[in-house]
Each structure stands twice: as C-alpha cells, then as structure tokens.
Amino acid sequence: MATFTGVGSHSSLLPVSAKPSRTRSGHRRASVLVRNAISVENKSLKLDKSEEIFTAAKELLPGGVNSPVRAFRSVGGQPIVFDSVKGSRMWDVDGNEYIDYVGSWGPAIIGHADDKVNAALIETLKKGTSFGAPCLLENVLAEAVIAAVPSVEMVRFVNSGTEACMGALRLARAFTGHEKIIKFEGCYHGHADPFLVKAGSGVATLGLPDSPGVPKAATSETLTAPYNDIDAVKLLFESNKGEIAAVILEPVVGNAGFITPKPGFLNALREITKENGTLLIFDEVMTGFRLAYGGAQEYFNITPDLTTMGKVIGGGLPVGAYGGRREIMEMVAPAGPMYQAGTLSGNPLAMTAGIHTLKRLTEPGCYEYLDNITGQLVNGILDSGKRAGHKMCGGHIRGMFGVFFTSGPVYNFEDAKKSDTGKFARFHRGMLEAGVYLAPSQFEAGFTSLAHTSKDIEFTVEAAEKVLKRI
Amino acid sequence: MDRLPSLSLPRPVPGHPHRDNGADVSQVTQRSPFCPPSAFGCPSGGGHNAEVPGSAESAAAPGPVDPATSRELMDRARAVTPGGVNSPVRAFHAVGGTPRFIERASGARLTDVDGNEYVDLIGSWGPMLLGHAHPEVVAAATAAAGRGTSYGTPTRTEVELAEEIVARTPVERVRLVSSGTEATMSAVRLARGFTGRELVVKFAGCYHGHLDALLASAGSGLATFGVPGTPGVPEAATAATIVLPYNDRAAVEKVFAERGDEIACLVTEASPGNMGVVPPAPGFNGFLAETCRRHGALFLSDEVMTGFRVSRSGQWGLDGAVEGWAPDLTTFGKVMGGGFPAAAFGGRADVMAVLSPDGPVYQAGTLSGNPVATAAGLTTLRLADASVYARLDEVASTVSAAAHDALASAGVPHLVQHDSNMFSVFFTDRDEVVDFDGASGQDISAYAAFFHAMLDRGVHLPPSAFECWFVSAAHTDADVQQVLDALPAAAQAAAAASA
To answer: Segment Disordered: which positions (chain B) (predicted)?
Structure first.
C-alpha cells in the first residue's frame, strides 16, 4: 500500500488561497513553461500544482482520473485539476480562471454553485442526507418531472445515467418480452454491457472499437444503425421482425459531438416502433431540461415510451431517472416483477438539488436566454473559423452546442469522425490558455448555463477568433 | 410537525392528454403479485398497500402517532413512482403496514412526517457508520458544496479519498463511481477483460447490485420477494454465471476443477449481509482466494457492506490481513460515501491498468469522484477511528444479545448471527445458517409482527428478515436502552404470530 505525501500535505479541504481575483487581465502568468503543453503561442499556463496533484493521482487512480475523458488523452497537455467553480467560472489549483463550457458535462445548467440551491442543500444536510426509507422530497421531484416531461407518467430515481439506462433496458425487455435493441453509432447510454457497442463519449474519444470484458452474449442482441438513417432502421426491423424490445437514442446527440436529428427522423422512429410493438426510448440524460423544460421530446413534439434522465435532474449531485408510460413503469419492483434497486436512490439531498434546479428552470425566459447566448457563441466561433479559412460546422439548440473541425454537414458518427482532431486539440489548448475551458474531446457537446453572461460570450468569441487565426 | 414545504412546482394536471385519465391507482397496484402473506388476511390479489387489519400498528403499543401523513404520502407516491418507492425494500411488502416517510435524521434517530421518532437500525442500509448528519461531515460537505458540487474534472479530494482507501486496504489502484451496482458491474467487466475469460462464479443469496449477470439467485430485495431472477434479463446474460451454495468448499472445488480455466472471476460478499448475516466459515475467503489464484481467475471481494464497517479495513482486516492473502479486486460503497452516492472498485495495479483511459476496458461516470461526495466520504473515513469501532462493537453486541434473550424468553425459535458489528436475527429453528437455503426458511410472519412491535415502540428495524441490523457510533446509551426496552414486547408479538 503506497502512502503519498504530495497531495496529503495539502490535506485541508479548503482552498489553499482565497479565490483569485476575477479580473481577466492579470490572470495569466507567463512564468513556468509546462513541459508537455501543446502551446500555440509563447504564453503558457502555469499548471505546476495540477501537475503535482495529477502525478500523485496517477499512482492511485487508473489514468489519474475517475472518468476517462478527464485525462485529456485526445487533446494532449496537462490535465487540469480544479479547485472551485461558481456560475460560469472555474478556478484551477494554480489559480487560473476559466469560462466553463463543460458545465460538469451537463448538470450545471443554472450555473455552478447556485446560491439558492446551496442554501437548500445546507438546510437539508443538517436533516440527514440518506434515510434508506421514503421521504417527501422524492414525491416532490417525481411530480415535477412528471409535470415537465411529456412521456413520463411515472418515474424511478437512481444514481446515474448509467443506472437509468440499465433500468430502462431491463424494463423494455421485461415489458415487451423481446430482447433485441437498436442503438445508434456514436450514441452513448452509460456503460452497461449491452450499450458498449459503437458507443460515443469516452469510447469514441479514446478510439476504442468496443470494450473488452463485455461478453458477446451481452452485445449480440444490440443492433446498430447510423444516426439519422431511417432506412437502416427499417432494414433492421425487417430482418428482426417481432424481436426488438426497444429503440434507444439520444434525441440530439451530444456524445459524438453535437448532432441534431434530421427533420422527420424522430417521427419516423416513433411510427416504426409503434407499428412493431417496440418501445421508443429517448435517452435525455443530456438533453433533458436543457433543450426545453420538457426536454427534446417537448422541443420536437415527439413522445417516446420511456425516457432516461440524469445530469440536470440531480442539480449537481448524482441522480438519474427513468420514466414513462404508467403501464410500463408498473412492472418495476416492488409494483411489478422487474428488479432494480439502489441504496442511495432518491436520497433527500439529491432530491433537494434537483427540485431547486428545476424550480429555477421554470422561471420565464430561461430557454430563450440560453438559445440567445448559445447562438451568439456558436455563430461567433463559426464565423471566425470561416474567416480564418478553417473547415468547420456546428450548431446549437438552446443550451447545448457543438463545433466540428470538418466542413460537414455532420449527420452521424462517421461524418463526425472526419473532423480534424489534431486541429481540435490545438484549438482546445489555445482556448485553455485564453481562459476558456472546453470539453477535452471533439466528440463531446458543449454546454452553456443561465450564469453565462453576454460578456462571457463576447470574451469567448474574441478568444476563439484569435486562436483560430493562429492554428 | 414541520410544515410540508410548498415548493410551488408544477403538479401533474389531471386529465392531461398523456395521462391515463382517472386511472384508479389502487386498482393498478392490485395487479401486483406482491401481496403480503395470508396471515395478514389480505384478500387474494388485493391491495397490499392497504392497512393490514390486526397489524401490530394498533392497540397494544404505547402511543405512537398514527402514521396518517405517511399513509397519505405513500398514496401520493404510488401514483408517481413504481410501488411508491425508489428502492423495493422500502415498501414494507414483507412486513405489511405503512412505510414511514422520514422527515429528518440525526445521530441514531429518525423522525417521520407524523412526528414519530425512532432509534434507527437501518442506518440507510449501511452508510451511516457515524450516524446521521454528523456535524463534521455536514461541515465538510457544506464547504465543498460552496465551491461547487461537481466539476467534471480531476479534483484534489478524489485523490485524497483514493489515498485513504489505498492506505487501509490491499487495493493498489482505485476507481471511484457512484454506486455499489456500478462498482460491481465495472469490476466484473474488468476481470473479464483482464483474463480474457467470461465465466463468473457467485453465491446464492449474495447481492452485488442489479447488473444483469449477477441477478441470479440474488439476495437483498430479491430474497425479500422470493424471486429467483427477474424478467428483462436475457438468459444469455446469466448463462455465463455459475451460482453456488455459500460456504460450500466442495462445490467451489468442483466447479474450478471442471471449468477453472474459463472462469474470469469469483465474486462474493466478503461477509454476506444481503440474506441476513451469514458469515464465511473460518478460512473460507482464504480458500476462495487461493482457488482463484491456482486457476488464473480473479478473486473479487464485495466489501460494499463490510468495507470500513466490520473493521477499519473491512472484512479483509479480519481475515486476509491476518491470514496473509488479498483479493485481486475489491468493491466498496456505502460507508465510503459518507451518506452520499459514492462507491469504488480497486485492486491489483496490473489489473487496474487494463481500465480506460490507460487500458481498453471501458467505464465512465459524470459524477464519479465529485468533490462533495468525496469530502463527505473522506471525512467519514478519517473520523472512523478505534473508538468508533469499539463503540460499534459495543452497541452491536449489546443489542444482539438482548434480542436473543428476549426471543429466547418468549420461546421464539430464532438465531442471531454476526460478523463483527454486523448482525441479524433469523426467525428459524435452525442451529446455524450457512447459506441461502438456510436463510430462506424463516418465519416471515413472526418477523413482521416483531418488526411492527418494535416500530410502535420507536425502534425502526430493517423491514425485511433478509437484511443486516445496522448500528452506528452515534447510538447513545439511551438509544440502546430504548431498543432493549422494546425487545421483550416485540418478542411476545413474534411468539403470538408464530403460535
């Protein structure tokens, strides 16, 4: 058993220094060159403490991280260890400040460390974080979700998107009595074995074909089609007639970069699944409460049979959920025979975070605001890119966006993979040095929040313009 | 009673087009197969959610407030959540009656929404080693929340928590996740990826979370409902899972002799608590470790329940550390989350090196290692010193001895089994319970009567005979005394029920 003094010497849980000044001008210190930084200009980030902590982390955590994409493998450079976040900002352990477009991969839609949410959390903390027994707050959040999301008449809370999709899959199989599922290339639904087939997110980022350790039997019933390709889906239904339990998809892909459904695609899926007695599952872990209060299904006006949720619904704490038609959900134990359980599921603290986050999102104007600033952001970046002569495309819907370094259009994962990932890496590094934190992978969507101001957006677009001229 | 919070969130609108207009919820739930045993006079196929006539919630008990609000909230819950709960065992199906909705918890005490207070012996099913809302854990979580509850990036605290886990266990490298289920599913994938093999061996009655492969003869909620498997799991998913009787060396030897080179891993609860407490026979875990080693399989020890509870180094601290062996992989959860969703899997460095991003076996999680859960977990582990374990042991032995005495005096056939401070009471006439078959044959109606008698006297036991009674270091002498005072009447109720 190793013991480490490097990190342990900073054993206080409080930040080493007070929050650094928020003025943008002085926050770059061009002092120590980080050895392995891909720097596109002379300026470099001082990342000494990040390096120290991350080096210690690599001795303890595989890859130094608790989730693969955080390791910066596809963009290179020193992964950054963060100390605190607030609103649209992040501060790393060296005191560098960034405008954040990762938003913890989705949850932070009302901004990090929201004061009202935190006040509620602190009150709830004092009353106990987990009872292992029912509490009123589970009802309250359930009712809020049901009122918000068109397909959801009944909902079960779990602890992650992975658990939500596992639950939904088992339920679809139990309800229909069939076993096969259709998923789309580049979509990611958590890491349950049957979903680790042509998956997006970290699997795509790392260029993994699929994952070892997943028995063929677990994936042999997983059929895949290219996103946006309804003909491929029709073929699958023809050759697997009466055997398909569910079609699952991200209604707007975020895990292969940002890819929107073609007009009519979602509708066609709704029709073909209905015709075949197959369940349509919208994985709204990313899009839920982000594209609209009622998610992608509200935005596109298509109602699936089951929906999975996560991220925003937990308000920054670990929460997932799956829900849908009552007759389907009534199969879930203890109402029905389909087993799924969780010690921390529905714990009052997570429910509190979710409730107050949703409450904020019901205030008028939220989604218009997100649409506005995100549109400015993406258009600004794409314009700069074009003027600098780069092949780029991208788009946004409300608070979710993406930019690809390829001329596009990008309709599916194969199209996305045409992106110049080397250029993306240089763009990523350049933006980092300019104080903008983007997802360290071409195959992840970007996220804005209600805390992003138009000044944040202007700053970001200006930074992008400079970086895009250089790379 | 605290005013129910008015959170002015949109409520479901009756008659909304996507709702099954006017569906009678009670009618829907009557279709459920999970009706309490007929001893409660439950009409066939009918409302398991109804108040059970003649249940111990009535006359004999001294003055608890009728759980009217809990009942109302349960009705409300059933309309929006399957079975009204987010985890099956909370629904009280095995014991009947109204699940108590908890308003607040502090130390070793729960308060329900009707103002009833209970000494807590569920302990949130394991995490509450230090009791609820421990001030230092609250302070650490509060401070962390102020700086953001989740970044999606590396942070200091996750490294510190990993250090703590590595320092106390044989684990060399660890990956943090958000639940025991996630920990086990990842560890199994890793074992399969590392060995290149597929077969997994598990024991009947052990529960490792609800991953498809291990939902075969599982314990915990499944034992409570007596369900052998579950619909929705393809046969192919469990076809590569071999289920053996627990504590059966001959069975283990036979399987490994026949198929040892196909076995990726053997997974066991380090000391099973999900079928009630059924400890490993002396040397059993060491035997498992050695058998795996000889056949190139990995030994995966599930310490989600025992980890940091039965000793500061979990069950391994009581056997492997003493006997000189270590599992190849271990899973943790519950206590290490400090009351937040956090768990972990870890082990040999060479095995963990196969995990992404270093290796090709995939696993990820948005909230994995988040700064609030890790702050709470780290604080909890650091506070769990020798005096905490001494107190846990003391409370456990006092309560378990008193339970035994009370039941013996009342002439109720029973058996108390324990592993360190984890214990449970089997309502059985067996001399010992060493496996799932032994655990299964309990007098559930006796347990139900016992449970409700305790509940009416302000002691909240696990609402299932297949769960461990969890104590904490926050149980005061007064708390313990209240439990002791309640036991004789509860034992009488159990005797009456089995008469």
So the answer is: 1-69
Residue B2 is a catalytic residue: no
pLDDT at position B224 is 53
A350·B341 Cβ contact <8 A: yes
How many Cβ atoms sit within 10 Å of the Cβ of residue A9?
A: 9
Mutate: best of B90, B150, B220, partner A, most A CBs <10 A: B150
Q: CB count, 10 Å around CB of A123?
A: 10
In one letter, which amino acid is A14?
L
Average pLDDT (A55-68) is: 96
Within 8 A of B307 by CB-CB distance, chain A residues are none
Angstrom distance (rounded) from CA A184 to CA A251: 11
- Looking at residue B223, its pLDDT comes to 52
SS3 content of chain B, % helix, strand, coil (to 5): 40, 15, 45
Three-state DSSP state, A233: helix
Interface test with B, best of A9, A149, A162 (most B CBs within 10 A): A162
Contacts of A317 in chain B (CB under 8 A): 149-150, 340-341, 367, 370, 372-373
Instruction: Give CA separation, A333 vs A397, B86, B87, B88, B232, in Å.
Output: 36, 9, 8, 6, 12
Task: Kindly report whether the global pTM for this prediction surpasses the value 0.90.
Answer: no
CB pair distance less than 8 Å for A156 and B81: yes
Question: CA B258, CA A100: separation in Å to the nearest integer?
Answer: 56
Q: What's the token pair of residue B346?
A: 């870890």
State the Cα–Cα distance between residues A135 and A350, nearest whole angstrom: 12
- For A240-293, how does the pLDDT look when each residue is reduced to its tens digit (9 = 90+)? 999 999 999 999 999 999 999 999 999 999 999 999 999 999 999 999 999 999
Looking at beta carbons, which residues of chain A come within 8 Å of B127? 130, 343-344
Amino acid at A454: S
Structural domains of chain A ordered from first start? 16-112+366-470 (3.90.1150.10), 127-361 (3.40.640.10)
For A409, the 3-state DSSP assignment is coil
Please report the pLDDT score of residue A143 as a whole number: 97
Taking the Cβ of residue A60 and every Cβ of chain B, the question of whether any pair is shorter than 8 Å is answered with yes
B447 counts as catalytic:
no
pLDDT in tens, B100-128: 999 999 999 999 999 999 999 999 999 99
Cβ–Cβ gap B362/A151 under 8 Å = no
| pLDDT tens for each residue of B235-275 | 888 888 889 999 999 999 999 999 999 999 999 999 999 99
Residue A237 to chain B, least CA–CA distance (Å) = 20
Q: Which residues contact A447 (CB under 8 A, 6 or more apart)?
A: A101, A102, A103, A105, A106, A108, A109, A290, A399, A400, A401
Give the Cβ contact number of residue A117 at 10 Å: 25
Interface of A with B in 10-29 (CB under 8 A): 10-11, 13-15
Confidence of residue A198 (pLDDT cuts 50, 70, 90): confident
Question: Is residue A64 a contact partner of residue A54, using CB atoms and an 8 Å limit?
Answer: yes
Is residue B302 flagged as an active site residue? yes
- pLDDT value for B42: 29
DSSP-assigned letters across all residues of B130-199: T-BT-HHHHHHHHHHHHT-S--SS-BHHHHHHHHHHHHHSS-SEEEEESSHHHHHHHHHHHHHHHHS--E
| Cross-strand pairs, A322 | A156, A308
3-class SS of residue A24: coil
List strands edge to edge, sheet with A446-447.
A393-397, A400-404, A446-447
- Alpha-carbon gap, residue A170 to A332, rounded angstroms: 9
Give contacts of B376 with chain A, Cβ < 8 Å: 129
Say how far apart CA A448 and CA A301 lie, in whole Å.
Answer: 23
Say how far apart CA A109 and CA A400 lie, in whole Å: 10
The catalytically annotated residue of B114, B246, B328, B334 is: B334
